[in-house]
Amino acid sequence: MHCRLAVIDTSEKIEQGLAAIGPMINEGLITLNDVEIAKYTHRALPDLPTDRPVREIMTPDPLTVQLQTPRRRDRRVVVERIVQSRAGD
Fold this sequence. Notes:
Elements: H1 11-21, H2 71-87
C-alpha cells in the first residue's frame, strides 16, 4: 500500500515527528525537503465565538478510519457522512 504524508512545520517539530514515526516504518522511504512558498491563501472562516465551550463548536462525532480499511470503503464512509449532514440542513 502506498501512502504519502506531507507535513509542514518547524525543524524541531519535524524531528520530533520523525523520532515517533521512524520506528513504525518497516519498509519504504522517508524524505525531507525544504519548501519555498510561492503563494499562501486560505478560505475565509467566520470568527469563532470565544464565549462558547469548544464542545458546542467542534464536530461531535468525528469520522475515524483505520489504516487497514480499504480506501474504497474510506471514501464511501466520507461521502455517506457528507450526504447525511446535508440531508439534515
